[in-house]
C-alpha cells in the first residue's frame, strides 16, 4: 500500500509539473509548469484571477487594478510607464498583459520572463475565452468554467427579458465626444440588447472601434439614451444639460442620461454582468 501511495504521489507531481500550452495574442505560449508568481499588468485580468481563485499566485498588479479591494493591497508596478527592471524585481514566472504598446513582451522575454498577452476582448466570446485561458494557465480550469457558465446564464437571462425596441444610443467615453462603436466589447454589449449605436455610421479611421463625433452629428442623430462612461470624472445629467445646446436633446429632456461605472464599462471581466444589468435598467426606464 505504501509503495502504491508513493507511486500515485509521484505521478501527481509529474502531472502538476507537466508543460502548459495556451494561446496568446503574441503567439502560442508554453510554460514548463504552472506559474507561482504572477504579475498582472491588466486590471481586467486581475479581476479574473481573483474570481477564479488564483489570487494566491499574484505577486504584483498594475496601478489600475483596484478590484476586488484586496487587489489594491498587492505590490504595484506602473504598466503605463513600463520599466522591465521594476517588474523583474518581484521575480515573476509569468506576466499577464492586455497591451504591448512599449514592446513589453519582447523586453520581458529577453530576460527570461514569459508573457501572456491577451488583448482587449471584442465581444463576450473573446472574454469567455480569456477566462478559460487564465483557468488553464493557473490550473483553475473548473473554476474558470463555472465563472463562464454563471456569466453566460445571468447575461442571457437579463438580455432575453429586456426589450429595447428601436431605441438609439450614444456612449460617452469622455466629454470630447469620443465614443465606442459596435466593434468594441462595450459596443457589443449594447448590440446584444438591439440598441442602435449612432457611432456606427462614423468612419473609424484607425480601426480601433473608438471614434470622435461632432456635436452637430450628435444633435442631428438625437439619441434616445445617453450613457456616461466618464461619470467618475464628474459628468452627470446636470453637467450634460448645462452644455450649450444639449438641453434640446431628447435624452436630456426625458432624463435618459445614465451614469456608468467607468471601471466596469472599460473592462471585460466578471463584472460585465453588472454592466449588462445597468444597461437593462436604463432601457426599462424609458421603454
Question: What this model shows, in words?
Answer:
- The chain is α/β, with parallel strands linked by helices and 287 residues long.
- It folds into two domains: 124 residues, Rossmann fold; 129 residues, Nitrogenase molybdenum iron protein domain (Rossmann fold, 3-Layer(aba) Sandwich), CATH 3.40.50.1980.
- The strands form four sheets. It has a five-stranded parallel β-sheet with strand order 5-4-3-6-7, sandwiched between helices.
- The longest helix is centred in the middle third of the chain and has 20 residues.
- It starts with a helix and ends with a helix.
- 37% of the residues are buried.
- The N terminus is likely disordered.
- The CATH superfamily title of the largest domain: Nitrogenase molybdenum iron protein domain
CATH topology description of the largest domain: Rossmann fold
CATH architecture descriptor of the largest domain: 3-Layer(aba) Sandwich
Rg to the nearest angstrom?
22 Å
CA-based shape: elongated
* Estimated helix fraction: 25-40%
Give unreliable regions as ranges.
1-5, 7-16
Q: What is the structural class?
A: alpha/beta
User: Number of DSSP helices?
Assistant: 12
Number of domains: 2
Order of strands, main sheet, comes to 5-4-3-6-7
Q: Class of the largest domain, according to the CATH hierarchy?
A: Alpha Beta
Average residue pLDDT: 94
Tally the beta strands: 13
In terms of quaternary structure, what is this? Answer: single chain
Report the end-to-end length measured between terminal Cα atoms.
69 Å
Order of helices and strands: HEEEHEEHEHEHHEEHEEHEHHEHH
Strand fraction equals: 15-25%
Q: What does the largest sheet look like?
A: 5 strands, parallel
Amino acid at each position: 500500500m505504501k509503495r502504491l501511495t508513493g507511486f500515485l504521489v509521484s505521478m501527481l507531481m509529474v502531472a502538476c509539473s507537466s508543460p502548459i500550452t495556451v494561446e496568446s495574442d503574441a503567439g502560442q505560449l508554453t510554460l514548463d509548469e504552472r506559474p507561482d508568481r504572477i504579475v498582472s499588468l491588466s486590471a481586467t485580468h486581475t479581476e479574473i484571477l481573483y474570481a477564479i481563485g488564483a489570487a494566491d499566485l499574484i505577486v504584483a498588479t498594475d496601478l489600475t487594478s483596484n478590484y476586488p479591494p484586496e487587489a489594491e493591497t498587492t505590490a504595484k508596478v506602473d504598466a503605463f510607464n513600463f520599466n522591465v527592471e521594476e517588474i523583474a524585481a518581484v521575480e515573476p514566472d509569468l506576466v499577464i498583459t492586455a497591451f504591448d504598446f512599449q514592446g513589453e513582451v519582447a523586453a520581458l522575454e529577453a530576460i527570461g520572463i514569459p508573457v501572456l498577452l491577451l488583448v482587449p476582448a471584442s465581444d463576450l466570446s473573446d472574454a469567455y475565452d480569456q477566462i478559460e485561458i487564465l483557468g488553464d494557465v493557473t490550473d483553475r480550469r473548473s473554476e474558470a468554467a463555472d465563472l463562464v457558465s454563471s456569466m453566460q446564464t445571468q447575461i442571457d437571462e437579463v438580455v432575453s427579458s429586456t426589450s429595447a425596441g428601436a431605441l438609439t444610443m450614444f456612449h460617452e467615453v469622455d466629454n470630447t465626444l469620443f465614443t465606442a462603436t459596435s466593434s468594441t466589447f462595450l459596443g457589443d454589449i449594447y448590440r446584444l440588447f438591439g440598441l442602435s449605436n449612432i457611432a456606427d455610421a462614423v468612419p473609424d479611421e484607425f480601426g480601433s472601434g473608438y471614434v470622435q463625433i461632432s456635436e452637430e452629428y450628435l444633435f442631428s442623430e438625437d439619441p434616445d439614451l445617453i450613457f456616461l462612461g466618464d461619470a467618475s470624472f464628474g459628468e452627470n445629467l446636470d453637467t450634460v444639460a448645462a452644455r450649450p445646446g444639449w438641453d434640446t436633446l431628447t435624452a436630456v429632456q426625458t432624463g435618459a442620461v445614465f451614469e456608468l461605472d467607468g471601471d466596469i464599462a472599460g473592462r471585460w471581466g466578471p463584472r460585465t454582468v453588472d454592466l449588462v444589468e445597468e444597461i437593462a435598467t436604463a432601457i426599462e426606464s424609458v421603454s
